[in-house]
TrEMBL record:
UniProt domain Asl1-like glycosyl hydrolase catalytic: residue ranges: 261-328
InterPro entries membership: Asl1_glyco_hydro_catalytic, GH
Descriptive protein name: Asl1-like glycosyl hydrolase catalytic domain-containing protein
Pfam families given in the database record: Glyco_hydro_cc
Organism of this sequence: Caballeronia grimmiae
Matching Gene3D superfamilies: Glycosidases
Membrane spanning residue stretches: none
Amino acid sequence: MWTLLNGRVMKNGTGVSTGSSVAQALILYFNGIIYAQNSSGVWYQNGSPWKNIGTIDPRNVVKPSNTSLFYGINGHMAWGSGIYNTMTAEQQLAILKDLGVTMYRCDTADAGMSMTLAMALRGAFAGSGVGIMPVLNPRSAGWDPKGTEAAAYSLGYDFAVRCTQPLKGLVTHIECGNELDTVGLQLGGDGSQTSDWNPAEWPSFRGVIRGMIAGVKAVDPTIKCGVNVGIPMAYRALQMLWNGITPNGTATGVSGAATLQWDYTTYHWYHSSGKIECAGRNNACINVLQVLKDSFNVPIWLTEWGWSGSADSATAQSAYVQETMASYYAIKDKYNIESVMMYAVIDPSYGLIQGDGVTKNPAYATFKNFIAANPVKTA
């Protein structure tokens, strides 16, 4: 039993340190978690040690903004260094509002990063019409691509729980992993064949994604989970996960593994890969969007798209943005594309804004003007 006696948190009659020398003023049980607030208004979350979570009341859960999902962009709000760290949430939101985007894709690799996103959602972003879609990054949380499926599942589950808890009630979608297929998993080919994938590393790949989805759903079953690949023609990897197929060096692999299914398919596509509706080597002209639609029959999110970095001139960047946005806007209903999220808002090679966070590339105006001229109804 938890009590508060003379400003001290007690558990079953024994004093519990909150990591603060300031007397406690309030104890709270909310959403299955014990919190304590000190007399200075700072909240702590139960743990070993107790964690300082700031001055926002954990009961002050802000419902996700009723936003349109379609126009989005990537950023790194929760990074601990660099331009995103020096810019406030208010400053980043002002750019997003000026552009007209309504979804902000931001990576998280621990509870602290998720808390940064949560504070923004409860603060500047609350009621703004701009939502945040977190993407979980187990590559920064100790995931071993060569480990066992059981170990990867356990890591993915625990990692997802830690990252999702601060975001409960604040986000509607979470992407479980970012380009995990690019870490030694591909043996050869272009990724479109079962035999292109490494049997030795496949169990860990599958396990960590299964664990992340289970962890997110354990915290909040209403959050929709997405899964992506980073290799342009790696749709076969997604098909294998969905249908419980493990690569074994043959064209068809071996069936019988646990299936892994998700709420929306996420995919990455850049200028350097050509046309997504006519892709592949040797003029194969494979319609990747049609493959994704037919294989999974769930909404598609293009969570990264962009030009070819410094290989494209400023003029080429702007032209590519105009052409690509027009194309995705025209086909969104045909393929059930719910969101297209450009990479990125600020980046020295791929950003609408250069690395200083101030200087706008010509593509900035192209991107902004297209959204203004082609609104998408609120979801």
